[in-house]
Design goal:
Layout: H1 2-30, H2 40-57
């Protein structure tokens, strides 16, 4: 029985570690390494969730975009 508990504890720890590593990977995939600002991938995910929230609540949604070059 104690062997089973150790195995369960080990698997739980590995699962938690995997979740932390996946969160960090998601963060790295969403942030530009040069400017440390969120990238297009993050924007696409964020605007989709905001679009759904606005639609659900019956609110309008406006977007203003500008392109900044030579930074």
């Amino acid at each position: 029985m104690s062997e089973l508990r150790r195995q369960i504890k080990k698997e739980r720890m590995l699962t938690e570690k995997l979740e932390r590593v996946n969160q960090e990977l998601e963060r790295l995939a969403s942030v530009d390494s040069l400017t440390m600002t969120t990238n297009r991938r993050y924007f696409d995910q964020y605007i989709e969730s905001e679009w759904k929230r606005a639609y659900k609540n019956g609110f309008p949604l406006s977007i203003i975009m500008c392109d900044v070059d030579f930074f």
